[in-house]
Design brief:
The complex is a heterodimer of chains A (247) and B (388). Chain A contains 10 helices and 10 strands. Chain A is α/β, with parallel strands linked by helices. Chain A has one domain: 3-Layer(aba) Sandwich (Rossmann fold). In chain A, strand 9 and strand 10 form a beta hairpin. In chain A, helix 3 packs parallel to helix 6, helix 5 crosses helix 6 and helix 6 runs parallel beside helix 7. Chain B has one domain. Classes of the chains: A alpha/beta (247), B mainly alpha (388). Chain B: Keywords: Cell membrane, Membrane, Transmembrane, Transmembrane helix. Chain B: This is Amino acid/amide ABC transporter membrane protein 2, HAAT family (TC 3.A.1.4.-). Chain B: Its main location: membrane.
């Protein structure tokens, strides 16, 4: 079993009295691939917001890394620099800029304004960009504005940007939404490949996609963990069937 | 900045070359150094326009590239003007006062001189003491330092407070406008220490150059303004190129996403806001000696709105667009309001341009927004692309 990378314990958050996350505990090791499923409103997106610092929890602890530092006091950008990358549900790439510029921005490098102002392009960085473009099938599109890409390509570019950040933990929100079967297949491969060296959490609605990821599954419902285990294990759980699959 | 920087941005060289040719042309046609075809007052107008271009490219960087619609950059411009104006006024008054006291039997003491200067400058607002903020006014180097330091510090503190609280969009614009209005209202007060609504005047007389004709002085300022614009243009072109430009434009388009990439967005905004404020201060310090007078009305919020209009008409997100917009609008403005444009007699009504200029400006702003959202610069880009 791999060592623990991220641990949430007893995390709760409520919006106007509605408990979006209720005493949630969650652990993930490194490397590991994990899928999170759950019905609408189960708190999947809030869960990611909490880890990435967008939402501050009312209660609970979030410990990160080998030293077990708390993520609660850190800003979004500091958490990202700690090595947590996030892919949004809707592909968000910088459409006015080229694919190469998008990747270059994401590339792991010092992030201060003056580091960036006097940044010199390196052959090492260029090679990294080429490699990621290769991995995500965007080699021919490097000089195109990201806005010209197809929906699937934008999703891949965003995954590529995440890889360029070299995060230790990757949070991916519904990567297969709106993709063709062939695109899904390729996305699955990318995620499985990425999870060989790091922790990857995939939030997904699509059961078929989750099955193909072939990994441990966590089921969320009403802001807490309902079941956890292999896909066959959770899909045969009567509670899970009742709240999610049965409908 | 190396050779590849210019090689990648050939438009910078084009701009510098055109600016150089223009400067040379004006020099050859001026009264002081050339044929005299261009009057000294027009040289001043051109020099002032170059300063406005400088503050406009600063505005373009902060608004067009970084997406911060600041309605306060003309305040920084004004502060730069006041900072240099204080030295100009103090030093010139010192010369006059010393001359008038020179014939006294007992040589005047330093306190007597400084008291005389104070009552000379502040008599108009009923005060006779030099306010604390004039402590450095006797020294040109210190006051030049103030030209960059005060706008820079104000922008740094204001920006830090605003960006840290994640104030964005129209709310930030309103906040910057409030700052501008507060500053202008404060300066209107007689006890503000800057002569209230009288402002600072006689700034065209440069201490130490009393015997130099204005035609030559205006030429020197014209050259200094052109040089400052060239340096500012290269500086900003450097900032908005490469990875920095990439991050800045990304912040404009989706700052949340940039945050999740690990960039501390607030630091970047603060950097851009402060740098452009400093450049605006320098532009102001070059402008007001050519204008001769600065008063609080110059800082009124409308001035900062004009600045945004120039940049919008010229085309946001391209530096030369800001220059084109500024030149077009300010020269048109002085032509229409200066009596250059002939009145139009419609029989039942005569259109006087002095009254109707603002309407025309407003209409052209609407027309640009509707039909050429990329501004004049966007039209130029289209032409260039067609030829290529």
């Amino acid at each position: 079993m791999s060592k623990t990378l991220l641990e949430l314990s007893g995390v709760s958050v409520s919006f106007d009295g509605f408990k979006a996350i209720n005493n949630l505990s969650f652990q993930i090791g490194e490397p590991e691939l994990r899928a999170i499923i759950g019905p609408n409103g189960a708190g999947k997106t809030t869960f990611m917001d909490i880890i990435t610092g967008k939402t501050k929890p009312d209660d609970g602890h979030i410990l990160w890394g080998d030293k077990g530092i708390s993520l609660l006091g850190l800003s979004e950008s500091a958490i990202a620099r700690e090595g947590i990358g996030r892919k949004f549900q809707k592909p968000t790439v910088f459409e006015a800029q080229t694919v190469r510029e998008n990747l270059a921005m994401a590339l792991k490098n010092p992030r201060g304004p003056f580091d960036v102002l006097f940044y010199k392009k390196t052959s090492d960085g260029a090679a990294r960009i080429e490699a990621i473009a290769e991995q995500t099938g965007l080699t021919d599109s490097l000089t195109r504005p990201a806005g010209e890409l197809s929906h699937g390509q934008k999703q891949w570019l965003e995954i590529g940007m995440l890889l360029a950040q070299e995060p230790r933990l990757l949070l991916v929100d519904e990567p297969a939404a709106g993709m063709t079967p062939a695109e899904r297949e390729k996305t699955t491969q990318m995620l499985v490949e990425a999870a060989k060296t790091r922790a990857v959490v995939v939030v997904e609605h699509d059961m078929e996609f989750v099955r193909r990821l072939n990994c441990k599954v966590t089921v969320l419902n009403e802001g807490s963990v309902l079941a956890e285990g292999s896909i066959d294990h959770v899909t045969s759980d009567p509670q899970v069937i009742e709240v999610y699959l049965g409908r | 900045m190396n050779r590849s920087f210019f090689a990648k941005n050939p438009s910078i060289l084009w701009f510098i070359a055109l600016l150089g040719l223009f400067t040379l042309g004006v020099t050859l046609l001026s009264e002081a150094t050339g044929t005299g075809l261009i009057s000294t007052s027009f040289v001043k107008t051109l020099g002032k326009t170059l300063c406005l271009c400088l503050v406009a490219i600063a505005m373009d960087v902060v608004w067009g590239y970084c997406g911060i619609l600041s309605l306060g950059h003309f305040a920084f411009f004004g502060i730069g003007g006041y900072a240099i104006g204080m030295w100009l006024m103090y030093a010139r008054t010192e010369v006059i006062v010393s001359a008038s006291m020179a014939n006294q039997v007992i040589p005047p003491s330093a306190t007597e001189v400084s008291d005389a200067i104070a009552s000379q400058i502040f008599g108009v607002v009923g005060a006779s003491e030099l306010p604390t903020i004039w402590s450095f006014a006797h020294s040109l180097p210190l006051q030049l330092l103030m030209v960059v330091l005060i706008p820079g510090l104000l922008a740094l503190v204001f920006g830090w407070l605003a960006f840290r609280s994640r104030v964005t969009g129209v709310y930030l614009s309103i906040l910057t406008q409030a700052m501008t209005l507060a500053l202008s209202l404060y300066l209107f007060q007689n006890d503000s220490g800057l002569r209230g609504n009288n402002g600072l005047s006689g700034l065209q007389n440069i201490p130490g150059f009393e015997s130099t004709p204005q035609s030559l002085v205006s030429m020197a300022f014209f050259w200094a303004s052109a040089l400052a614009l060239a340096i500012g243009y290269i500086l900003f072109a450097f900032v908005i190129s490469g990875k920095m430009g990439s991050v800045i434009r990304a912040i404009r388009d989706n700052e949340t996403r940039v945050r999740f990439l690990g960039y501390h967005v607030e630091s970047y905004k603060l950097f851009v806001f402060t740098l452009t404020a400093i450049v605006a201060g320098i532009a102001g310090a070059l402008y007001y000696p050519q204008a001769g007078i600065i008063n609080p009305a110059e800082i009124a919020p409308i001035a900062s709105i004009y600045l945004a209009v120039w940049v919008a008409i010229g085309g946001r997100g391209r530096l030369y667009g800001a220059v084109l917009g500024t030149v077009a609008v300010t020269l048109a403005s002085s032509w229409f309001t200066g009596g250059g444009a002939p009145d139009i007699n419609l029989g039942f009504y005569t259109i006087k341009w002095t009254d109707w200029w603002l309407v025309l400006l407003g209409l052209s702003f609407v027309a640009v927004t509707l039909f050429a959202p990329q501004g004049i610069g966007g039209l130029v880009d289209k032409l260039v692309r067609k030829k290529a």
